[in-house]
Amino acid sequence: MLRETVYARLRYEVLSCQLAPGEPLREQELAARYEVSKQPVREALLRLERERLVTVLPRQGYRVNPISLSDARDLCRFRETLEPICASEAARQASDEELAALEAYRSFSGDSSAFTAYNRHFHCAIADASGSARMAATVRELVEQAERLVLVSLQSVKGRNNALLAAEHGDIVDALLARNGRLAANLLRDHVVRANARILEFLSRFPVVP
Predict the structure, then answer these.
(1) Is 94 in the same domain as 52?
(2) What's the pTM?
């Protein structure tokens, strides 16, 4: 459906920072760019407003929401709370086949851009294995929005080692395969906390990314 295609494309461009935080948006310009009428663009922008990715500016158009430290902290807290629960539930009730599929995330080779997608798929795969569609959908949204934080801070974040992060994924997979929910939850929480700390350290120096 056209409206879903426009929404998905616009959302992707916001989350991937192709449309930068703080960037003004105009319905007419986006419609011309996507070669559609203004109606599906308007609907997509309003959906993104509900997701707090876009702000409506009366009589001015729209703006990609800047990234604030307080909002980033909220997002990080949600991830640190919800993702370990997903890991615990996955260890308890996921099928052997679902857990075996996580073996694909033990290692990684590629550039930073490819790592971002690999990391997203890993975290979402664990959420899916929890058996809770609602939790999985929420985690997916949180992880996708967290990618925007990573992308704006990537050049300044210190201590990110893709090989080490992939090794941490492997430890989490080991715990899940052993059906050790407590260990899997603790490892995943620590993994997320460390990643969040790197991002928040950057944003604490630049509270709002223009």
Answers:
(1) no
(2) 0.83
Q: How far apart are CA 191 and CA 84, in angstroms?
A: 10
CATH for 17: 1.10.10.10
β-strand pairing of 67-68 with 61-64: unpaired
CA 38 to chain centre: 28
Say yes or no to pLDDT of 192 above 90: yes
Query: Beta-carbon neighbour count of residue 6 at 10 Å?
Result: 23
The tally of domains found in the chain comes to 2
Give the model confidence (pLDDT) of 158-171 as tens digits. 556 888 899 999 99
Report the chain's C-alpha Rg in angstroms.
18
Domain harbouring 84, CATH code: 1.20.120.530
Q: Nearest Cα to 171, choosing from 128, 95, 112, 107?
A: 107
Q: Both 54 and 85 in a single domain?
A: no
Q: Are residues 41 and 78 in the same domain?
A: no
Q: Could you list the residue range(s) of the whole structural domain that residue 45 is in?
A: 2-65
Choose among 49, 47, 36, 51: nearest CA to 7: 47
> In whole angstroms, what is the distance from residue 143 CA to residue 75 CA?
9
Q: 24 pairs with which residues across the strands?
A: 63
Q: Collect all residues with Cβ–Cβ distance below 8 Å to 80 and sequence separation of at least 6.
A: 189, 192, 193, 196
